[in-house]
Specification:
- The complex is a heterodimer of chains A (403) and B (52).
- Chain A has 403 residues and is α/β, with parallel strands linked by helices.
- Chain A contains 12 helices and 14 strands.
- Chain A is 44% helix and 14% strand.
- In chain A, the strands form 4 sheets. In chain A, strands 5-4-3-8-12-10-13 form a 7-stranded mixed sheet, with helices on both faces.
- The longest helix of chain A has 29 residues.
- The two termini of chain A are 33 Å apart.
- With 52 residues, chain B is an all-alpha fold.
- Chain B is built from 2 helices and no strands.
- The chains are: A alpha/beta (403), B mainly alpha (52).
- Chains A and B meet through helix 5, helix 8, helix 9, helix 10 and helix 12 of A and helix 1 and helix 2 of B.
- Chain B: This is LPXTG-motif cell wall anchor domain-containing protein.
- Chain B: Keywords: Membrane, Transmembrane, Transmembrane helix.
- Chain B: It comes from Klenkia sesuvii.
Chain lengths: 403, 52
């Protein structure tokens, strides 16, 4: 879409894709090629190469993407995105593009990073434009950009459209357990329309909303004034979700905004990933405190804590029934109750296919997975209370298979 | 995404209710009550709530 194309007399919003990438040579080409199949093509694709020791940047350029290489970034993904948003784009108003592609005189230039690539219309970014932030190892559904942009265009009150994520294939039983979990989560978001987090795997933002966040940091919101992302947050996407909600923006997750993202190949990787997620979620809440916006998040945490207690009580009763008594007695009533759970488990992963349902049917494998997640929850809670330092965990993607 | 253990736990608690111990001690009663609560939540999840 041309930058001067207009819809209903107003310039059509431009769509810029930002892809933070740290040593993603194995996946960046596939990710960029998949973007070409979008039914609504983005206007610019910028790969934010962050401390890459491989040829991520070269591969991205070979695919026709712009590349922004971070300088001295020590704040991981959030820091990389902040650099890109601050240094790569000039600020313009929507009307500026009507007069042409030259930036107005009031726009400040702060360094060489603001130069646009040759042959493009210039590196401006208006308040009414959209920015899609997506992971370098994530594939978007072909309708993602169109659906996300369409939802943002429906109302200026909508600050962002988040993706619904699904897991990549592979990794055996552990992979299927994660895919089942992701499928249920996405189903629940699609069913209720309640967006709890704008996933970092793929979410589109209204630039005006991001700038409002940057301006509110240090006062209304945690973080450093002028930065979109809070670099101290372990889960920067969850934090940004809270920030946008706190500023009064509505969020949406259209069903068509599906993304397929990586899953953890080993239990150790999963442990580290979930420790970061859970720890990050708890710390985000601690920073935001008890507000009307965070109420549901706090209740969710309380529900999880009660769930842990209930599960442990259940296990205790089962052990006691076998050790003290003769085991649980058969009951038609409790059998019927049990079948409700079987039904819920199987139906809620229907979208993921028969393998997913076959894994859900016997209940016990997913119960063991639940127990694992509960251990993560308890451990991360203890770490937050003890203020132990948390760490990031980067999975090196497997090398691409030669054709 | 970052707080899913609640969902899975909800099903996990009652997941093997066919095996549930329905004895007379208070712990079993609490477990039975929670199981019924989560069964209700599970039923709600099966109901489509929003057309998009």
């Amino acid at each position: 879409m041309s930058v001067v194309e207009e819809v209903g007399g107003a310039p059509a919003p431009r769509i810029v894709v930002l892809i933070p990438a740290h040593d993603e040579a194995a996946t960046i080409t596939a990710t960029l090629l998949a973007l070409r199949s979008q039914t609504r093509r983005p206007d610019r694709v910028v790969v934010v190469a962050d401390n890459c020791a491989d040829d991520t940047a070269e591969l991205a350029r070979a695919c026709g993407a712009e590349v922004f290489e971070t300088v001295g970034n020590t704040d991981k993904k959030a820091g990389a995105l902040n650099q890109a948003l601050q240094r790569r784009f000039r600020r313009t108003a929507s009307g500026d593009r009507r007069a042409g592609t030259e930036a107005p005189a009031w726009v400040t230039r702060r360094g060489p990073d603001r130069r646009g690539p040759q042959g493009t219309s210039g590196p401006d970014l208006g308040d009414d434009d959209f920015v899609l932030v997506m992971d370098a190892d994530t594939q978007l559904a072909p309708e993602f950009v169109a659906a996300a942009a369409g939802s943002l265009e429906r109302s200026p009150r909508i600050g962002a459209a988040g993706g619904l994520f699904y897991g990549q294939t592979g990794s055996g039983l552990l992979g299927q357990l994660q895919r089942n979990e992701y499928t249920r989560y996405s189903r629940e978001v699609g069913r209720t329309g309640r967006v709890m987090v704008l996933t970092g795997t793929g979410s589109m933002f209204r630039v005006r909303a991001l700038r409002a966040v940057a301006e509110a940091r240090g006062t209304t919101l945690p973080g450093t004034r002028g930065q979109v992302y809070d670099t101290l947050a372990l889960t920067e996407d969850n934090e940004l979700t809270l920030a946008l909600k706190t500023l009064g923006y509505r969020l949406t997750s259209p069903v068509a905004c599906a993304v397929v993202t990586e899953i953890m190949p080993t239990w150790g990787d999963l442990w580290r990933q979930r420790m970061r997620w859970q720890r990050g979620a708890l710390e985000n809440l601690r920073h935001y405190g008890w507000t009307r916006i965070t109420l549901r998040y706090w209740l969710q945490q309380v529900g999880m804590a009660l769930g842990v207690l209930a599960f442990q009580a259940y296990l205790a009763v089962m052990v006691l029934s076998f050790t003290i008594g003769t085991g649980p007695a058969f009951s038609w009533f409790w059998t019927a109750v049990g079948l409700v759970f079987v039904l819920e488990r199987v139906v809620t992963v229907a979208r993921a296919g028969r393998r997913a349902q076959a894994l859900a049917l016997p209940l016990l494998p997913e119960m063991a997975y639940d127990l694992f997640l509960q251990v993560v929850y308890v451990r991360s809670l203890l770490d937050v209370l003890r203020r132990r330092e948390a760490t990031w965990h980067h999975i090196a993607p497997p090398a691409p298979v030669a054709a | 995404m970052y707080s899913k253990a609640g969902y899975v736990t909800a099903s996990g608690v009652g997941g093997s209710t066919t095996l549930a111990y329905t004895g007379f001690d208070s712990l079993a009663l609490v477990v039975a009550a929670v199981t019924l609560l989560f069964a209700g939540i599970a039923l709600l999840k099966l109901v489509p709530r929003r057309a998009r």
